[in-house]
Amino acid sequence: MALQASSILPSTLSIHKEGKSSFSLKENGFLGVCLNDHHKSDFNPTVLRAKIQFDQKSTSSVGAIRAQTAATAPSVTTATPQGKKTLRKGSVIITGASSGLGLATAKALAETGKWHVIMACRDFLKAERAAKSVGMNKENYTIMHLDLASLDSVRQFVDNFRRSGRPLDVLVCNAAVYLPTAKEPTFTAEGFELSVGTNHLGHFLLSRLLLEDLKQSDYPSKRLIIVGSITGNTNTLAGNVPPKANLGDLRGLAGGLNGLNISSMIDGGEFDGAKAYKDSKVCNMLTMQEFHRRFHEETGITFASLYPGCIATTGLFREHIPLFRLLFPPFQKYITKGYVSEEESGKRLAQVVSEPSLTKSGVYWSWNKDSASFENQLSQEASDAEKAKKVWELSEKLVGLA
Predict the structure, then answer these.
(1) β-strands 33-34, 373-375: how paired?
(2) Nearest C-alpha neighbor of 308 from the set 250, 363, 367
(3) What keywords sit in the KW lines (predicted)?
């Protein structure tokens, strides 16, 4: 996500339906003459003959008008089912869209006028204020409550979304919890360690449930995107800064991450807030690849992950020590040169949502110094197919899908 080297420092033609005109045969009339009291005085041979002649002339005239309309009307071309073309707005859900990368992405997509953004957030009022603060047009977004730290909330969100009647074309799993200075673990409603429970398990259940909705989309390019992080990749400098991500043999995940009978950490080790975040990001990237292996060929859905760059000023670092929050942005701007603004990072994620050139599935996207996208390499652990399968199976059990 935003975290990079946070540990380096301590129009159409409308054809109107033909109604029953005054010249048509009605159930209670004869040759267009209604047999009510008002017209009974007209019902004599002379009047009737005159009415019939008028009807014939008028009908002929109407026919000429219709013929002229048919000759001059522009042709209307409809899209074939095979082409899966649609003129409607795309519909995208973005979790954690009330701030940071999520808000910047929502803004970038809404501004195009081609997307309706469902902002899935814990704090409804905060999200509303955020949307207004960046100038988002109300008709381009909807705010819905979602707390990823509660599996019941995830299920309720899915139910509410389906009741809205909106299609789902793209799901962006962006929200994240980062507690680098925490000395003791905190837990989700179901008792999972908060970072992994929110960042991975909450998104895992959300993605699995909404997969059916994505399958039903008629949009040209359906996508499921899970935001990754460079800190979860030990093949990078930032990924090698202690504590390094390491899922080990998954014994903690298998035990439920509750800190009671077993460790609250995935690898079964001592709790470390920064490592818990990094481990959750490895799970995110493994999950994306497992989705790709299991469902891409069958559904045509594009599954992707990305690292949009180091957003050093993001609220993700709000739990870090004040000195870090003061020094980290200039360090990234002037020393590592890895700094990316929230606005730029939002545009990058928006590209992965909508750009036709970024439809390859199973890819982890990054950007170079010229802001050009490229397929990046994941670390050995973050691309371990066997471990991805185990994480998937254990996660299914923990969220009640198996």
Answers:
(1) unpaired
(2) 367
(3) Chlorophyll biosynthesis, Chloroplast, NADP, Oxidoreductase, Photosynthesis, Plastid, Transit peptide
